[in-house]
Structure formats: C-alpha cells, structure tokens
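Table S5 (text form). Sequence records supplied for joint modeling of the two-component complex.
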Amino acid sequence: MALQSTEMVRETPPRPATPATPVTPVVQLRASEPAVAPEAAKPCIVASHLSAFFGNTAAVRDVSIAIPQNAVTAIIGPSGCGKSTLLRCFNRMHETVPNTRVEGSVEILGSSIYGDGSSPIAVRRHVGMVFQRPTPFPTMSIRANVAAGLRVDAKSHAARGATSEIVEEALQRAGLWAEVKDRLDESAIALSGGQQQRLCIARALATRPRVILLDEPTASLDPLSTQKVEELVYELRQTVTVVIVTHNMQQAARVSDGTAFLLMGELVEFASTRQLFTAPRDARTESYITGRFG
Amino acid sequence: MIGLTYLCAVLATLPLLLILWHLIVKGASSISLAFFTHMPRPVGEPGGGMANAIVGTLILIGIASAIGLPIGIGAGLYLAEKKSTPLAHSVRFLADVLNGLPSIVMGIFAWQVLVRPIGHFSALAGGVALGAMMIPLVTRTTEEMLLVVPTSLREAALALGYPKWRTSISVVLRTALAGIVTGALVAVARIAGETAPLLFTALGNQFWSTSIREPIAALPLQIFTYATNAYEELHQLAWAGALVLISIVLVISLAARFATRSRFGAPVD
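The corresponding structure-token record, covering 563 residues in total, follows.
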C-alpha cells in the first residue's frame, strides 16, 4: 500500500526567489507521488473571482482556482480561513445557510453551476459531499442509506431494478462491502464511527458523481479509521475528482496530489503537494507548513 | 442531600400509586363485562354499565385528535422550519399561552362558537374544545422533536440532491417521527380525562348516542354525575369508571413509551 511506504523528505530543492531560511517540512510526503503540477492537468472545477459571504462578512475572498480532474486536491489552512466555505461553494451548499451569498463563478466540467439554467439540486446530484461527522440517516437501513441519493432522483426510477447492484458497487468502492454485506438491512447507526463515515462515502458515490467533496472527513475518527478513509480517498482519484478539506497537514501530504493553502479567505498558494510542502513560493505558506502559526 | 432527592423521587411517584391503589380497592369489584357492554340503569335496578360513556369518550378523543393532531403537527413543522420569522415567534408565544389556559375557558370558547350558534349541545362542540387544547401541546412537542434532529442530517440530505421539502419530510420528519408520535399520544392522554371543557359542550347523555351532532356521554362527565349523586351504588360505578378512565390513559402512555423506540429498537438520538 502506497501509504505505508512514506519517507521523511529532508531535501530542500533549489527554488527561485524563495525566502532566506530553508524549509524544513513537518510532514511526510508520499514517495511515489505523480509529478503532475495542478496547472498542467485537465481542470474539473474552475472557480473565478469567487467570493462567499455570511451577511456582509466575506469568508472566501476573490478565489480563482482550477482544480484538476481525477486527482485529489487538498485545501488546507488555519481554522476559520474559509476552507469549508470554499468547498461548500462547489456544490451550492453555502447558500442553504440563511443570509449568505456567492459572487463570481464556478464551472464544473465546463458548465457553470451558478448560471441561469443551473439548479442547486441538479448540481448536488453530480457533486457528492461527505461531512466532518458521519451523517447516516438513523431511520434507514444500511442498504437504504446507500440508495438514498438514488431514490430521490426521479430519472433513476427506471433503473430501480439495478439498485442492489449499485448499492453493492458503491459499498465495494467505499471498502465497506465485506464488513456489511451480511447485514444490509440492519440499522446504519449500529455501525462504528469509521464504518458510518465510509457508509456516507458509499452513499455519495452511489449516484456516480463526477466530483466528491470531503469536509474534514476524518476529524471525528480514530487513527485506524482515519487510515482506512485516507486509503480510500487515495484510490478514489482513479475514477472521481476529490477535493478534501483538512486542517491536518500530514493528511494533506499523504492523500493529495495538489494542495491549496487558504488564509483569511484568500487563496495564498496552489501547487502540487510536493512543491507546496517542500518549496512553497509564498512566505505565508512557508510559515504555516513549518508550524509557525495555525 | 442525595438522600433528600431520593425521598423526593419516591414521593413524586406516590400520588399515582396511591390513586391506582385506591381506585383498584374501590372500583375493581364493580368492573365486569357488563360494565363495558351495558347501558346505565335507573337507580335501584342492579347491574348496568357505562358502555355509552366509554364509547362517547373514544368518539370525543377521535374528534379532538382529528382537529388537534394535523394542525398541531403542521404548526410544529412550520416553527421548526422557519425558526425566527415574526409569525413563528408569535405562534410560539401564543401556543404557550394557550397551553396555560384553564380548560374551562376552552369549554366556554367552544360553547360560544358552536353550541350557541347551533342551538344545542353536541359531541362536535366537545371534540372541538378538546382538540383546541391539544393544538398547543402537539405544536410545541413536534417543534422540539424536529429541532433535536441534527442540522448535519438535513445538510446530508440536501447535499445528496434532496429538494428542501423532501428533506423536511423524508429525513427530518421521519427521524423525529417516534418523538412526534409520543408527543401526540401524551396530548391524547392529557385530554382523555378532561371534564371541564365538556360540561357545556358535550353535556353528557344518559342514552346511547354516537352522533356527533347530539349531546354525548363521556367517562369524566359520568363519573362527575355519579360521584355527586346520593346513591351508594352509583358511587361504586363512579369508582369503576375512574378506574377504566385511568386505565385508558395508562395504556395510551405505555403506547407512547413504546413508540419512542425506533424501528431498530434503539432510541433515536
């Protein structure tokens, strides 16, 4: 497994116009990291001059970013820097909170999600989301939980016969099938926290979204469950674009291809994870990743 | 100190236990099959039951529930969805006031709006008075049960592409359902034994009647009539009636306890 073969990165490659002090990263990077710079990859989510407000306070300020397709992009930054808000602009969940608004534009796979013809419901069906705390529906069985997103989509009623295959496939992809296949009709809240979170990932995957947004998905999990979710995230990028918000830099380094650093609502730097953690271009990024603040 | 609270905890259950014991001692001997199936008989004739009052009480509960539950649950849904609109604030306040309103006032209200215009007492007027008493109770418990459903569940449903109304019904309401059913049953248990609102609405009836347009017998009214009577045998029947009434309330309360268990046998948290 790629996650076990990690190494401490000590080298400080030559950087143009870098601060005087060499960067000693406090995180472990994957040894076998694909050297694809985010700028070079095909973009999936393109945000231009995106700002998000709570009342009159901007939580996200003028962010422009192109998130590559079928890769894992991490958003890091100190608490309250707007990373969750930015994530919630990508599936129009930000607007579900009263007194909020969004400025600027977001395109996902070429179509504008804030455009005139776009509805939040349609956007959310193609962009899955998993939250900080596991949110299985307590009144539903494991099976019904996974199928919840399918049942609400009128168009998928025709494919209802295939539901059990879709449920199995989603649970397989979430790495939960072996653990729950004999108790699909039992309550979802009987599962452990880590299993519940992977169930939520399965539920998000069942509708076959092109993008999956993870909002600190391991914040409430124990280390072992965290590791399982991270392995899962690493595998998911084969088939889906993943954006993960985390306040854990180690996690960002372990699972992501590209990392965006956000500070006070502004996008400070977006680069390949290796570059951001070993040769940050911005002094603020460097301060953050070397643990000087946040 | 903890010993004192222990004593208080025991004392808190004492009234119910004493009442039950008293009712069983005094009333159990008069309870027979005939009590449930026979009509009241004139004083001096042996036997006789309260079949009309038992049926009457069930009909009144039915009318009250048909009015109080839909309005109460609907209003509770509104309060939980639109927490801080001016309407929500006033509804919440007025529901609390209504909850504290003496039940006799509710009877006067029903008399004023139904008995007087129609010209005679009726089961409908009694049911309306009881239903109006249920509304604030059901509204507030429904609201509380819905607010206990974590926002994260609502968000999870929205993020799956559920429309807002569908989120409210198939996730939020469904998660809170056990609690709402409990609240409804508690409200039913609360009004089942009400006497004051029925005094000048349902009035009571010595004869068999199931028409909602006619005066109807009810257990609390029958107990009141018999208990204030001079004859010992009617006192006996009043005790038995009280025992039946409290049993109905107990059964409803037990059903409420049972309903709080979710489908999967664990309480919803």
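Note: Chain B has one domain: 49-260.
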